[in-house]
Description:
Layout: H1 6-12, H2 19-30, E1 35-36, H3 37-42, H4 51-63, E2 67-71, E3 77-81, E4 93-98, E5 104-111, E6 128-132, H5 135-138
Parallel strand pairs: 4-6
Antiparallel strand pairs: 1-3, 2-3, 4-5
Amino acid sequence: MTSLAPQDLLHAVGLRRTKAREVVLSLLQSAHRPLTHQEVAASPTAASVDRVTLYRTLAALQRAGLLHRVQGTDGAWRFCLHSGDAAGCPGNHAHFLCLECGGMTCLTDQPLPWIAVPDGVRVLGKQLVVHGICAGCAHD
């Protein structure tokens, strides 16, 4: 998704390089959709990372602005790599959630419109989840 290596992404935001951070970033870079923490944990590349470290890593990467999360109708949080380049997953865009299979995809070509916010409020991000049936489930 993004052209920067995980260690370069970590360096860019001032985070120390750890195996867990590199594994999570690498996995999300290669994913074509947002992943739940369970999906990250089930990946063979993340098998050496224990669950507590995985949760802490996802939280640290989110705080650093490298990830953003979107909640599906099932209550599970899904994580996307937040990248400023054209190939990445920018934070202010819509997501599509299939109500049949639970799959979620980024709709990066659909930026979210600006909305009026009260004076003194600082917007940190926006998200919209469009619910429906994906093409794969519609054909089943």
